[in-house]
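Design a sequence for this backbone.
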């Protein structure tokens, strides 16, 4: 994992947005995996600004979102559909055909989740998956105990996640208790991952994700198994990292290197990377 620490939320967001913008500049048909929640909002704001300032064309990209609440229609103000429309899609001028989100209202979630996996494959796989980390160490809605090989499915939310989400709803009873989410296995198949965290409330799980054991109890720790996971946080979230000085040393030493691996840009290299020798 490439661990990077920025001064504050804004510089963290700028750095994240620069990675996404440079990807789309070099690969106009990039496939982006997107997250909701409070953490990536600054990245999205910066991305919209950079896209305008540098005249970057986003019309060829495809997006897949990590998750959606079960039982909320797309038009609900707290649905992840609405969140994405307001915080990113409108600003980048993305069309409905370019964006893929799970529906919280499908009567057959099992079939829908299988179709979603297929759509990701048909799009050529996700080039860069943006992630946040939950208070219980989750990525997407892969709560403690989720399979680290799990695929997109309907899941029950942890009471801590439900409690964390009450701030967005008028009444406690309105907070969704289930969600549709990519699995950890789905996420690990992305060619690169970018996970962000800010604030001292995240410092404990951030340290567990980076320096703790790989465990289904902190599903974000599965990113230790990913060949190219970038973890950017502000100083507060990084406060409990034991090897912080070393990570900062590495970041400085590799400052002249590209943030994303070559295999994201070169399909041929990616195929070679994934194929087994035949002789
Ligand atoms: C959202 C998602 C979640 C959030 C996580 C952190 O699509 O997948 O895993 O990233 O709950 O949420 P915030 O950023 O609000 O702290």
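Sequence:
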């Amino acid at each position: 994992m490439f661990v990077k620490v920025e001064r504050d939320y804004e510089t963290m967001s700028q750095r994240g947005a620069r990675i996404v913008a440079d990807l789309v500049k070099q690969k106009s048909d990039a496939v982006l995996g997107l997250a909701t929640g409070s953490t990536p909002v600054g990245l999205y704001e910066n991305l919209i600004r950079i896209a305008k300032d540098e005249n970057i064309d986003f019309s060829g990209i495809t997006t897949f979102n990590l998750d959606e609440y079960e039982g909320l229609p797309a038009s609900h103000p707290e649905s992840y559909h609405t969140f994405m429309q307001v915080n990113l899609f409108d600003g980048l001028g993305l069309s409905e055909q370019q964006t893929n989100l799970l529906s919280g209202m499908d009567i057959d979630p099992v079939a829908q989740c299988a179709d979603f996996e297929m759509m990701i494959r048909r799009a050529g796989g996700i080039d860069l998956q943006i992630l946040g980390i939950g208070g219980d160490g989750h990525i997407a809605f892969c709560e403690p105990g989720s399979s680290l090989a799990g695929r997109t499915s309907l899941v029950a939310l942890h009471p801590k996640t439900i409690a964390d989400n009450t701030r967005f709803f008028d009444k406690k009873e309105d907070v969704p208790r289930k969600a549709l989410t990519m699995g950890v296995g789905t996420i690990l198949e992305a060619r690169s991952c970018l996970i962000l965290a800010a604030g001292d409330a995240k410092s404990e799980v951030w340290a567990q994700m980076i320096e703790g054991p790989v465990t289904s109890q902190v599903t974000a720790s599965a990113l230790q198994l990913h060949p190219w996971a970038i973890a950017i946080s502000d100083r507060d979230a990084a406060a409990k990292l034991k090897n912080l000085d070393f990570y900062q040393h590495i970041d400085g030493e590799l400052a002249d290197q590209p943030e994303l691996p070559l295999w994201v840009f070169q399909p041929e290299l990616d195929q070679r990377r994934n194929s087994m020798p035949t002789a």
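The chain has a mean pLDDT of 96.
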